[in-house]
Each structure stands twice: as C-alpha cells, then as structure tokens.
C-alpha cells in the first residue's frame, strides 16, 4: 500500500514538473561584468517556505508556463512582470548607462537550453518613483511608465534572435546612455510565435530585473520624448506581430527610445555570405565539380566551330587530339569517376590527372 501511494506521488510530481519543463526563465543576468543568478527555475507557491535567492536581481515568477495573446491573457496583471508581478528580488544590480546587459535563459528541463527558436525579444524599462528603490517599486496595471529600449527580430537571413537562445547563447541589450540615474525595472519579454498562425496563441515569457543606473544624465530630458505604455494594456490579440506574422515582421508596442533606436531597429547581423563559386565544403584545388564529366577535357582540343580558331601567327600550345582519341579519354575518365563514386571514395584530385 505504501509502495503504491509513493509511486503515485512520484508520478504526480513528474507529471507536474513535465508541464514546466517545456519552458523556462532567466538563468543568469550580467551587468557591468557581474553575473547574477536567476530566480528558481521551478513552479513555486509563495508563502509556503519560499525564500528568494539572496544574490538574484531578477524577480521570481511562480510558474514557467507562458501567458497567451488572448484578450484575457493580454489583460492579465501578470503581463507587468510575469506571473506574480508583486514579487521582488533581494538584489539591485548596478549598471552603467550606455553599457550592455545580457540575459541567459534556460529551459525548465535541467541542463537544457531555451526550447523555442521562433519570435522576437523585446526589452522595456520603468523608472521607479523618487525615493523608491527598485526592490520596492511596481507600476500600477494602468500606469503608462514603460518605455522600450530594445527589440530584436530577424537577421539578414531571416533567422530569429530567439534562435540564439536555443543555441545556449545570451541576449545582449544596450542600456540608453543618457537616461537619468536612479532605480529601474528592466522588463525582458520573449514572444514565441511557433503557434501564432492561430489567433491568441502567441506565447509571452516575461521577467523583471532590478537595476540601479549610474553614469547617466542628471535631468529628465532624455525621457521627455519617450512613448510610455502600460502593461497590461499595450498589446491587442490581433496585432500584426502577434497573429500570423509576415516575413517583414512588425514589432508590437511603441517605438524604441530615440537615443537607443540605432542599436535595435537595424536587422541583426548574419554570417558573411559565401563568395560566388566558393565551395561550401572542403576546398578543392582541382577543377570545379559537376554532376557529369565535361565533354571537352582540357587536354582535348575542341574542334567545334563555336570556338574561334587559333590565329596562324600564334602557335597553339595545346597538343592536338583526334575526336576518337578525345572520346576515348573522356570515356575512361568518366568510368574512373563513376567507379570512385560507387565505391564512396570520391576525391576531386583525379580530375586533375
């Protein structure tokens, strides 16, 4: 009886955990060269023995499941800072204005990278009120205080920025160089679009990290032209960036803060293109490869009238070969090539023989 009960309990835990394993949260936040661990990467219940990590600057969420782009999901207060928007982290990370911070994400499955590779990554900031530290501040659900500092979509080859996360890479985000000093929340938003052909099926993974900006401006002029928005309340379920996104992607939400726009709106860099006729595998110093042997090997002089005759004043350096001899050479060469292909020992070197 005890064995049955224990087995049932283990199965229930594994089933519940398996639901979360498909998603994830911030693993490491880096600012000014310092690395801060992310919150716990499990579904938790607040008030039941939970203690936030002492050295984490990213607020804990209580579940790893996404919010969806349904009208109800987009109106949920969890759109502010993710599930459990009222939680706070124990640490405030100092960050220099004009520097880059980075986010590394992990899957809910231990040891696995982020599981999605389709969709953009957007980042907003919220300036905490005067005399309110970042671990104590939380914008109201209708408060228009968030401004966008970064948005990353596709690179020049159409690869989503999120694909880098799936390759276990961190996402770098520039902090505006001229924003006022003080405490802020950095709202990092991942939108997974692999199911967005269905209305309401875009997935949101949202986190908030507490930072203290230094080296910025001493006045508010840098934010005077910022488009401030509220979360929830900014997105609509049928926004072009959330439903049936096109090849030319339209980001949801406001434009990036003008002083940071040059960092964000340009396409992400893509790998250097291959030069024309450059081989994509091991280079060969022999003749270019083709699907069939050439009808005119370099040692056989073509006699077709399509080529101009060699001027009489310039003796030819190519040894003349009769058509029958040329045909026999081509036939032997084709036979050798075919035999090597069949034997799985193809090497372009024989083409130089």
UniProtKB/TrEMBL annotation:
Q: Where in the cell is it found?
A: Secreted
- Primary localization class, coarse: secreted
GO MF annotation list: metal ion binding; monooxygenase activity
Catalytic reaction(s) noted: [(1->4)-beta-D-glucosyl]n+m + reduced acceptor + O2 = 4-dehydro-beta-D-glucosyl-[(1->4)-beta-D-glucosyl]n-1 + [(1->4)-beta-D-glucosyl]m + acceptor + H2O
* Gene Ontology cellular-component annotations: extracellular region
Matching entries from Gene3D superfamilies are given as:
2.70.50.70
So which domain of life are we looking at? Eukaryota
Q: Which BP terms in the Gene Ontology apply to this protein?
A: cellulose catabolic process
| Required cofactor names | Cu(2+)
To which protein family does this belong? Belongs to the polysaccharide monooxygenase AA9 family.
| Protein name, UniProt field | lytic cellulose monooxygenase (C4-dehydrogenating)
Which species does this protein come from? Exidia glandulosa HHB12029
């Amino acid at each position: 009886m005890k064995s049955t009960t224990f087995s049932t309990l283990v199965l229930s835990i594994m089933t519940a955990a398996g639901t979360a394993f498909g998603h994830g949260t911030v693993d490491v936040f880096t600012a000014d060269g310092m690395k801060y661990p992310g919150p716990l990467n499990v579904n938790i219940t607040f008030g039941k023995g939970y203690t936030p990590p002492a050295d984490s600057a990213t607020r804990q969420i209580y579940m790893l499941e996404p919010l969806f782009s349904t009208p109800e999901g987009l109106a949920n207060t969890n759109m502010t800072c993710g599930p459990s928007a009222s939680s706070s982290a124990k640490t405030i990370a100092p960050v220099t204005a004009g520097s880059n911070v980075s986010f590394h994400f992990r899957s809910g499955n231990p040891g696995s990278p982020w599981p999605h590779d389709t969709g953009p990554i957007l980042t907003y900031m919220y300036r905490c009120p005067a005399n309110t530290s970042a671990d104590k501040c939380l914008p109201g659900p209708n408060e228009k205080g968030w401004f966008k500092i970064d948005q990353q979509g596709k690179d020049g080859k159409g690869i989503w920025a999120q694909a880098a996360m799936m390759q276990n890479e961190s996402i770098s985000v520039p902090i505006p160089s001229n924003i006022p000093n003080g405490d802020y929340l950095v709202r990092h938003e991942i939108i997974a679009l692999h199911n967005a052909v269905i209305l309401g099926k875009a997935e949101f993974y949202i986190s908030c990290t507490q930072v203290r900006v230094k080296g910025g401006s001493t006045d508010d002029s840098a934010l005077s032209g910022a488009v401030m928005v509220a979360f929830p309340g900014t997105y609509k379920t049928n926004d072009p960036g959330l439903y049936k996104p096109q090849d030319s992607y339209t980001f949801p939400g406001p434009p990036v803060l003008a002083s940071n726009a040059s960092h964000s709106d340009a396409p992400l860099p893509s790998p250097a293109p291959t030069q024309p006729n450059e081989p994509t595998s091991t280079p060969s110093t022999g003749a270019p490869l083709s699907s069939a042997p050439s009808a005119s090997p370099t040692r056989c002089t073509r006699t077709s009238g399509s080529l101009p005759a060699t001027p009489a004043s310039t003796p030819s350096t190519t040894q003349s070969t009769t058509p029958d001899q040329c045909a026999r050479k081509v036939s032997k060469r084709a036979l050798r090539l075919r035999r090597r292909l069949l034997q799985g020992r193809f090497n372009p070197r024989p083409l130089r023989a």
